Amino acid sequence: MTKSELIAELAAANPHLLSRDVEIIVQTIFDEITAALARGDRVELRGFGAFVIKHRDARTGRNPRTGDAVDVDEKHVPFFKAGKELRERVNRNAGRKRRAVTSSDNAADRL
């Protein structure tokens, strides 16, 4: 799902809000998450997951084209860890899709 699809679905689910207002709300949430991560804070959304910043040390990497050694600076990268409720929901829905594919495959084998 893209950000514009998210905005469209939220606007459809909340007809009392204007689409441009929903867009401002979504953008504000993303901006606040970004600002918190930039400050080094952890962002936790209960039932969904947590965004944290992980530190990666400087290292020597390789240029894939030439094979030459390249110094890679240390950096901080955003990392998302899914919450228990999200993992369970995804796994529950993935199981349904997998069973549906398996049952139709078996039906095709019988023909």
UniProtKB/TrEMBL annotation:
InterPro entries per record: Hist_DNA-bd, Histone-like_DNA-bd_CS, IHF-like_DNA-bd_dom_sf, IHF_beta
Protein function: This protein is one of the two subunits of integration host factor, a specific DNA-binding protein that functions in genetic recombination as well as in transcriptional and translational control.
Keyword Chaperone found: no
SMART domains tied to this protein: BHL
Protein's recorded name: Integration host factor subunit beta
Keyword check for Nucleus: no
This protein's UniProt keywords: DNA recombination, DNA-binding, Transcription, Transcription regulation, Translation regulation
Alphabetized HAMAP family for the sequence: IHF_beta (MF_00381)
Extent of Polar residues compositional bias: 101-111
SUPFAM superfamilies linked to this entry: IHF-like DNA-binding proteins (SSF47729)
Pfam families xrefs: Bac_DNA_binding
Region: Disordered, residue numbers: 91-111
Record's subunit section: Heterodimer of an alpha and a beta chain.
A molecular function (GO) term: structural constituent of chromatin
One GO term of the biological process aspect: regulation of DNA-templated transcription
